[in-house]
Amino acid sequence: MQQALRIIRYLKHAPSYGILYKSNTSLKIQTFSDSNWATCATTRRSVFGYCIFLGTSLVAWKSKKQTTVSRSSSEAESRALASLACELQWIQYLLQNLYFSVSTSYTAFCDNNSAIHIAKNPTFHERTKHIEIDCHIIRQKLVVGLIHLLHVPSTRQLAYMFTKLLHPSTFQVATSKLGLYNLHAHL
Predict the structure, then answer these.
(1) Sign (positive/negative) of CA torsion 95, 99, 103, 104?
(2) Helices (DSSP H) in the chain: which residue ranges?
(3) Mean predicted confidence (pLDDT) in 120-126
(4) Strand partners, 150
(5) This model's pTM is above 0.90
(6) pLDDT of residue 125
(7) pLDDT score at 81
(8) Domain 25-167 bears CATH identifier 3.30.420.10
């Protein structure tokens, strides 16, 4: 209930905010994926989030509590990356159906080196068998060239705001990086 009230207060004070889509943006897709391990105090399920940019324009985003409990931050991040990879596959099909020519090696940024190494490693160890399916999804998309997985420092992680509570000043910076503008201020 507190989170719902917080969202309503934000919306009440930001009626003129919106996303500006520029007509001269490049057709390059970049993505950011993040997870906040064991966020829920009651269930200990993690929250994941991602955002997808076409050029400088935010075209898709998601924030969701994961359906199962993750046993490590690497597992939570791998689940987030698997969800992002599936969304990117859907976006690729959509763009192909619309006859858009977009580079098919989408850049995916993640701030968890362990999840990146697990996704790129073709050998599973005892410690990673519980996340094997999610890793297979990510690795398959890496092998076919759909995504190119790179590390990003947490300070430059744009999906942060979908998984963590931020200080108001940090939140304002994050929303501006996502392309959220006060439409009345730019008239």
Answers:
(1) positive
(2) 2-13, 73-97, 113-120, 132-143, 168-177
(3) 69
(4) 109
(5) no
(6) 62
(7) 93
(8) yes
**Where do the structural domains in the chain lie, given as residue ranges?**
25-167
- Tokens 């690795």 locate to 139
Write the Ramachandran bin of 7: left for phi over 0, alpha for psi from -120 to 50, otherwise beta.
Answer: alpha
Structure-token pair, residue 123: 């050998």
Read off the tokens for 185.
Answer: 């201020």
Amino acid at 103: S
> Each residue of 75-119: pLDDT tens digit?
899 999 999 999 999 999 998 898 887 777 899 999 999 889 888
- Contact by Cβ (8 Å): 138, 149: yes
124, 138, 123, 105: which is closest to 33 by C-alpha? 138
Q: Please state the rounded mean pLDDT for residues 162-169.
A: 83
